[in-house]
Design brief:
The protein folds into 2 domains: 1-44 and 123-141, no CATH class; 45-121, no CATH class. The longest helix has 20 residues, at 73-92. The protein is of the alpha+beta class. Helices cover 41% and strands 11% of the residues. It has a two-stranded parallel ribbon with strand order 1-2. A two-stranded antiparallel ribbon has the order 3-6. α1 runs parallel beside α5 and α3 (56-66) packs across α4. Bound molecules: flavin-adenine dinucleotide. Residues 8-14, 30-33, 38-40, 42-47, 125 line the site of flavin-adenine dinucleotide. Flavin-adenine dinucleotide binds next to α1 and α2.
Amino acid sequence: MKTDIVIVGCGVAGLYCALNLPRDKHIIIVTKDTAQNSDSFLAQGGICVLKDEEDYDSFFEDTMRAGHYENNAQSVDIMIRSSRAVIDDLVGYGVRFEKEGEEFAYTKEGAHSKPRILFHQDETGKEITSHLLEAVQKLPT
Ligand SMILES: Cc1cc2nc3c(=O)[nH]c(=O)nc-3n(C[C@H](O)[C@H](O)[C@H](O)COP(=O)(O)OP(=O)(O)OC[C@H]3O[C@@H](n4cnc5c(N)ncnc54)[C@H](O)[C@@H]3O)c2cc1C
């Protein structure tokens, strides 16, 4: 078998990686199970996002505290700063997050001290991963 890139695993990480690689690369994704059997499909609660600039410090602190301050601060910064763009991307792939009127509905969970979690019913992981999988399956072979 010849290919440019092999991705092991087709949870959200593997799928999103595949969608963000250059289109001229030949990619093979391998998984030890069915494509629908991963933790990503099981995740229920939701996905955190930077609501507005005022929330940055609190979001950063909550994330560092949850990681017992062992997190790589630069990675946390990248995660927070890119969160809105990732959400826009997911919506572009057809992912539906709960709304209140025209605006996203934010909830609070886990280590988050403020509501900054987007969700889809109680099956956010399935909603996200199934749409990413669909998008990956449409990539040219
Ligand atoms: C019940 C539950 C609820 C959760 N709720 C939330 C939540 O609300 N919010 C949140 O942010 N996170 C939540 N999580 C955590 C979240 O699901 C994971 O952090 C995330 O899905 C990890 O994605 P991933 O792509 O890295 O891994 P996974 O989704 O675990 O995917 C790993 C992939 O690698 C494959 N694989 C593994 N080993 C091998 C191997 N040796 N050879 C080939 N393939 C292999 C697997 O088959 C799978 O396809 C939850 C997790 C669970 C289990």
